[in-house]
Amino acid sequence: MDPITIGALSVAAIVIFVYLGLYIPIALGLVSFVSIWIMSGKSILAFNFLKVAVGDGVTEYNFATIPLFTLMGLLVSKAGLGRDIYDVLNSAFRKVLAGIGMATVGANAVFAAITGSSIASASVFTKISIPEMLRYNYNKRFAVGVVAGSSVLGMIIPPSAMLIIYSFVSEQSVGDMFLAGIVPGLLLTAVYVAAIYVMARVWPSYIGENIRVDEQPPMPRREMVRKAWPIAALIFLVLGGIYTGWLTPVEAGAAGASLALFIALIRQSMSWADFWETLVETGHITAAILLLITMASFYSRMLGYAGLPNQLDALLQTWDLTFFQIMMIYVVLMLVLGTLLDTSSIILIVVPLFITLIEGMGLSLVWFGIITVIGAEIGLLTPPLGISCFVIKGTLNDPNITLKDVFMGALPFAFLMLLVLIVLIRFPILSTAIL
Q1: Structural domain boundaries of the chain?
Q2: Other C-beta atoms within 10 Å of 317: how many?
């Protein structure tokens, strides 16, 4: 077989292996190694490719952002800042129809800016927001749907693990990816809040027929400040430091983790045993992501050796497609893969295939990263592998709310994500304006 055929079969093999349950880095590494061996006829070449990929992954300075931001996110969760964010915004929206849903979206957006994890957001706000909405007679599908839909903000609003992974795969600046995610993340947040406001008036059966408005007195201003200042300080330190150029992404991660530890200590919300557990969990997550990035680099080199990205570029050019048609093919591919694979798998598989084409068209790879992450994140809300939906169902452990309820509740928010994605494709400046 020629290298192009082998490269194409290797991509299909990786998708099949991942869908069958093989650990993603193992699937990437195994298929890449065998493919290079078959194409070259020399096992030593496959070992050399692997050696270079491992060396690049381990020695990359910006890789330090991963353990630092992971540690910061875990410390923030230990400090209970998710509950504080929710309390402040819930008090602010207490008199608005469907205000708890809007507060949940806002709290998820803020929580995303200090944790960067959709799964963490889904887990935290399932425990906090859903019981509160059910207590005020909200429709159970809306209650779980708004948490599922807004949880994806954790992978778009920086610091985001998926933006970091994309930056390594595409060799883009982590700081640029973080800055590019701010406007799209805020745009999606605003669309969610506006959609909830509209649905409460034109589709009340989805929100809840007899919603009660919170009659509790507003939270005292001093209490709001007490709960809000740690969150504001972290966002200002991390994103403000990167945006002004005072801090590199690695330095911002270190500063944010230090401040999060300080907040957890002064609140006495974490014992030494909890701190050690946090460090161990940070190590586990970091090691897993390092292996993922290393094998993704190995996979990209295999595709380059096979010449598959260049062949795909040539094929699409012979079809004489417009920019929008090419992006439509790309988005459809991600949506299809999103029904089978998780976000990181989609990024690692499709980006090396299309990156040569995007560069050849003179388009921004930073913008392309935002499109990729949002497109892949839609898969978190779609069956059969909507991870956020499974996390919510598992965290709730409520027999009255089925997995079908979670997926159906998340469906309108997945549709809104798709609309925002189309807007970002049509207007790339929204992603690159503040770079």
Answers
A1: 3-432
A2: 13
